[in-house]
Structure formats: structure tokens, C-alpha cells
């Protein structure tokens, strides 16, 4: 290890991703969120935007399971934005639909309407491809 290398640079996003999945599978959602978020950050730094988006999506799912809908909404939307950035529109659409569910659970009528509009725009775009 070079003297300039940080602990973050030594961490393996794939290992963190797997650990997050294992923790989520056994119901340890808070711990899984930490692993998924760290993996997402590392994937994004490595310009692996699909896995950055996917692990952020997984963190959002854990937040949703814990009924932390506000945090889940933010993470699903960020996951969608990352996916759209690199052309993974169908995955981004799924993340937006989950964000919509979160907003419905919180009774956020204005945000529900905004997300429905955005979802329709993405679906319309995808139907022309």
C-alpha cells in the first residue's frame, strides 16, 4: 500500500455490496444500508454508475422496509437520476415507481403528482424506442 492510499481506496465495493445483500436477506436492514451506501459511493467514484445506482436502490429498499419513507424517497430518486444519467432508463423508471409508493405512503399529494408526471414522460420515451 502506498503512503497516499486511504482506507476508502482499499475498500472493495463488490464485497460491501455482497455484505449488504447478506445483511438485508437476514433482516438487518440498518446495517445493510450502511454497506449499500458505502458501496454506492465507491462505485460512483469508479464511474460504475449502474452499480452505484443499484446499491443506492438497495439502500432505499431497506429504508422502505423500515418505513423510513422520506429517506427511501430521496435514495430512490437519486438512484433513478444516476440510472438515467447513463441510459438505464428502465431501471430508473423502477426507482421512480418505488419513490412514488413512498410518497403515497406519506400522503404527499403534490410530490405524487410530480412523480406520476415524470414516470409518464419516461414511459412515453421508452415506448418510442
Task: Looking at this protein, list some descriptive labels.
129 residues; mainly alpha; Serine Threonine Protein Phosphatase 5, Tetratricopeptide repeat; 0% strand; disordered N terminus
Question: Can you give a write-up of this model?
Answer:
This protein has 129 residues and is mainly alpha-helical. The chain has a single domain, classed as Serine Threonine Protein Phosphatase 5, Tetratricopeptide repeat (Alpha Horseshoe). Helices cover 81% and strands 0% of the residues. It has seven helices and no strands. The longest helix is centred in the C-terminal third of the chain and has 19 residues, at 109-127. It is flat and about 40 Å long. The termini are far apart.
SS field, number of helical segments = 7
What is the number of strand segments? 0
Strand content: under 5%
CATH topology-level fold name: Serine Threonine Protein Phosphatase 5, Tetratricopeptide repeat
Q: Output the CATH class name.
A: Mainly Alpha
User: Considering DSSP H and I runs of 4 or more, what fraction of the residues is helical?
Assistant: over 70%
End-to-end separation in angstroms reads 47 Å
Rg = 16 Å
Mean pLDDT over the residues = 92
Number of domains: 1
Low-pLDDT windows of residues: 1-5
> Class by helix and strand content?
mainly alpha
Label the overall shape. Answer: flat
CATH homologous superfamily placement: Tetratricopeptide repeat domain
**Overall CATH architecture:** Alpha Horseshoe
Written as H for each helix and E for each strand, in order along the chain, the element string is: HHHHHHH
Please give the largest β-sheet.
none
Amino acid at each position: 500500500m502506498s503512503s497516499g492510499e486511504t482506507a476508502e481506496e482499499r475498500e472493495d465495493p463488490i464485497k460491501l455490496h455482497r455484505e449488504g445483500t447478506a445483511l438485508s436477506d437476514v433482516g438487518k436492514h440498518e446495517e445493510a444500508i450502511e454497506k449499500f451506501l458505502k458501496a454506492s459511493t465507491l462505485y460512483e467514484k469508479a464511474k460504475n454508475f449502474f452499480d452505484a445506482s443499484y446499491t443506492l436502490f438497495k439502500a432505499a429498499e431497506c429504508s422502505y422496509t423500515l418505513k423510513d419513507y422520506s429517506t427511501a424517497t430521496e435514495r430512490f430518486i437519486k438512484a433513478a437520476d444516476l440510472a438515467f444519467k447513463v441510459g438505464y432508463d428502465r431501471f430508473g423508471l423502477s426507482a421512480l415507481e418505488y419513490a412514488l409508493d413512498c410518497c403515497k405512503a406519506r400522503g404527499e399529494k403534490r410530490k405524487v403528482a410530480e412523480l406520476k408526471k415524470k414516470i409518464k414522460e419516461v414511459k412515453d420515451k421508452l415506448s418510442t424506442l
